[in-house]
């Protein structure tokens, strides 16, 4: 019988088997652990990139947080009350605030006037009447801004009617005339007058 080493293909087969066994050994000893390490590091890098992007988003929001903190500090010092050294100052500030809120809504202010103070329990409320005109969106936006402003303001009476009895030119948006009585709680010296 002819041995494998003596056959025509025997020596190359032994050579191939030895090299294959060596390559598998090198793979198991060096390459596979290196690939596992690289895969683990890649996963960790991706995780760290996700954390980094979150932290960058937080850092980018820092100006907004600082602005909000300043607003909260101002709101805490001013509170949700109208304040001033006397009733006239409070009324003037309320009228200016109402005009500003209407202007932001693009409604046209016709007049703003003071209303008599009201006392409910121990709380004093200062008021103003604002008369304005605008589209339904502008009037609604003004009411929204008034009721969501700081200090807290309350619309206690409202009269809304179409401008010019509802007559308008073709293609013109309908306009409204509105009158709102607005009150806000007063604190400080102005409340004690």
Write structural notes for this entry:
The protein has 193 residues and is α+β, with helices and mostly antiparallel strands. It has two domains: 8-60; 79-192, 2-Layer Sandwich (Alpha-Beta Plaits). It has five helices and five strands. Strands 1, 2, 3, 4 and 5 form a five-stranded mixed β-sheet that branches. A hairpin with a 2-residue loop joins strand 2 and strand 3. Helix 3 crosses helix 4 (136-147). The longest helix has 51 residues, at 10-60. The chain is elongated. The model has no long low-confidence stretch (mean pLDDT 83).
Secondary-structure map:
Blueprint: H1 10-60, H2 62-78, E1 82-83, H3 87-104, E2 108-120, E3 123-135, H4 136-147, E4 153-162, E5 175-187, H5 189-192
Parallel strand pairs: 1-5
Antiparallel strand pairs: 2-3, 3-5, 4-5
Features:
Alpha-Beta Plaits, 5 helices, single chain, 193 residues, alpha+beta, 2 domains
